[in-house]
């Protein structure tokens, strides 16, 4: 949590993104914070300050949750579908690839990547780009 008030909204957003990147998918408090953030579409950044989170930041939280072994896949899928149902657009289509690549199960990652390279493939290079950085399992 932040002890001091940020000077600008853009600074708060940068700090929030950094905070999300430092969260642990195996820490129960971090999981609760992420789930509350998605549910409320805002996240607590200090005791007296909350920040509304946008679609990209909610997808950051969903990717985080997809890396957790503490949530059932059914619940993860429900969170993804809920987010996609909110003003669906191109962002959702691309972010979904990153979310699916965030799953830590190696067989699922291989199946996803296999769908990219099988012939004939209708893969859009932007979709591969959107998911490529999430294929690596940091837990391995």
Question: How is this structure best described in words?
Answer:
A two-stranded antiparallel sheet has the order 1-2. With 140 residues, it is mainly alpha-helical. The chain has one domain (9-132). The protein contains seven helices and two strands; from the N terminus they run H-H-E-E-H-H-H-H-H.
Supply database-style keywords.
single chain; 140 residues; mainly alpha; two-stranded antiparallel ribbon; 2 strands
Mean pLDDT: 81
Strands ordered across the widest β-sheet: 1-2
Number of strands: 2
Number of helices: 7
Q: In percent, how helical is the residue content?
A: 55-70%
Q: Kindly, what is the distance between the CA atoms of the first and last residues, rounded to a whole number of angstroms?
A: 29 Å
Please tell me how large the radius of gyration is.
16 Å
Largest sheet: 2 strands, antiparallel
* Percent in strands: 5-15%
User: Uncertain segments of ≥5 residues (pLDDT<50)?
Assistant: none
Which structural class is indicated by helix and strand composition? mainly alpha
Order of SSEs: HHEEHHHHH
